[in-house]
Design goal:
Elements lengths: L6 H26 L3 E5 L2 E3 L2 E4 L3 E7 L8 E2 L14 E6 L3 E6 L7 E6 L2
Parallel strand pairs: 1-4, 3-8
Antiparallel strand pairs: 1-2, 4-6, 5-7, 7-8
The structure holds copper (II) ion (CU).
The site of copper (II) ion has 5 residues, from loops.
Amino acid sequence: MRTLAKPSALKGAINAAALTAALLVAPVASALDDSKVTIDNFAFTPNVITVKPGAVVTFENHDDIPHSIVDAAGKFHSKALDTNDTFQVTFDQPGEYNYYCGLHSHMRGKVIVAP
Ligand SMILES: [Cu+2]
């Protein structure tokens, strides 16, 4: 392909690729950001996420009241997170981790760690 492309055609292809990349940066970045859980309106979003072993999951509270993250098996828990506070957990071991909000126990979510 490289030997067949005229310089002008090649330049056009590169520009098209650059334009495509620029247009895709924002949506792709958010779609691949599967290690972030936000708290909005008393709910964890996404409610269930799947990550690779070793992934760092960031929880971020977007509500204007405090929430916390408590592992149902007692392996981790955050302090009460104020608005825009974050809490990070590194998940090294494969498995399923059910968690809830320590202040509102009906708020529940799950992290699935799978290779
Ligand atoms: Cu809460």
